[in-house]
């Protein structure tokens, strides 16, 4: 048994995940009533969500407390990359929606969720997350609140003794090791998630929304394979695709099935470590990116809003379209970290065109119908780009300050 485990662990994790993916599909087709298989996926996602808040708190506290004076992090560059990508995603989605207009059948597509009342409410929600009770922030996986407390406690502990700082470091290392153990279970978790997706949701109900899905997924692919690589190239002046594909393979694949940027934080942390990135930087940028780096959400908001606009025959001028791009980028940063969170911001964007809340909520209902694919692709784009831009900023900094070469290829096996 031990020999089998050793051979299994020697196989690349990505290859093992693909094996779990194939097994999930086969089992769903052969034994669709074996509901116990889906439990593996639920347990895997729950384990990631359980360990992620503690990981973020200890890593950030340790990084800030042990930060050496005069050593600069790269957060300013990363935040600029996050904002640029999200805005360009919203702008690209607007352009694609005009090139390939989609009309919706809105009758009967209803839902009872409550959207935010305006951009002020979205921003107010973010501010209240910052001042959340630390225990509640951990329990509710409020990463904005966790980051705020971790930063404050880290700064407060900068003057602590070496023994205290050593305890923080040992604690973060211990939780990181637990994360590595959990991630080793990814092939079985992916198998359960795929099994559940096929047996419960199926794909037959999505056929009537084929064009809408094509526009959404096509736009997200354009961001992932064209826009983001261009941003990386501008900063590194090297072929961006080895890094892009590595991030999509290691981070995007897992995020596609977990459909949660928060649950994918441990996966991204591990990938940053494998890429040799600065721990002081990625321990902050990755959990922050899971909250505000939302290019996929900006695409969803823009495409579905303009689908409603085209359905109702509302005329849209260039200025209004540009405002929509900015609005979708800003509001996307306030999207909740749960599956389908970006859909609740569609009424906010629809209000820009005078579309009533009743009609906008029907569009939200359509979004939930196609959410099996839409939200999976959205989360894959959001989460993989967190690592992509953290790595881009880190490599660019090394090139500028140390004269080190930027890798043309990235090996993760």
From TrEMBL:
GO MF entries: neutral L-amino acid:sodium symporter activity
GO cellular component, one term: plasma membrane
Pfam families: SDF (PF00375)
Domain of life: Bacteria
HAMAP family: Ser_Thr_transp_SstT
Chain segments annotated as transmembrane: 12-31, 37-65, 77-100, 141-160, 181-206, 212-236, 284-309, 321-346
InterPro entries from the UniProt entry: Na-dicarboxylate_symporter, Na:dicarbo_symporter_sf, Ser_Thr_transp_SstT
Keywords assigned: Amino-acid transport, Cell membrane, Membrane, Symport, Transmembrane, Transmembrane helix, Transport
One GO biological process term: serine transport
Task performed by this protein: Involved in the import of serine and threonine into the cell, with the concomitant import of sodium (symport system).
SUPFAM superfamilies per the UniProt record, alphabetical: Proton glutamate symport protein
Keyword Transmembrane helix: yes
Places the protein is found: Cell membrane; Membrane
Family annotation (PANTHER family): PROTON/GLUTAMATE-ASPARTATE SYMPORTER (PTHR42865), SERINE_THREONINE TRANSPORTER SSTT (PTHR42865:SF8)
Membrane topology: Multi-pass membrane protein
Primary subcellular site in the record, as a coarse category: membrane
Name this polypeptide is given: Serine/threonine transporter SstT
Catalyzed reactions per annotation: L-threonine(in) + Na(+)(in) = L-threonine(out) + Na(+)(out); L-serine(in) + Na(+)(in) = L-serine(out) + Na(+)(out)
Family, per entry: Belongs to the dicarboxylate/amino acid:cation symporter (DAACS) (TC 2.A.23) family.
Organism: Paenibacillus antibioticophila
Gene coding for it: sstT
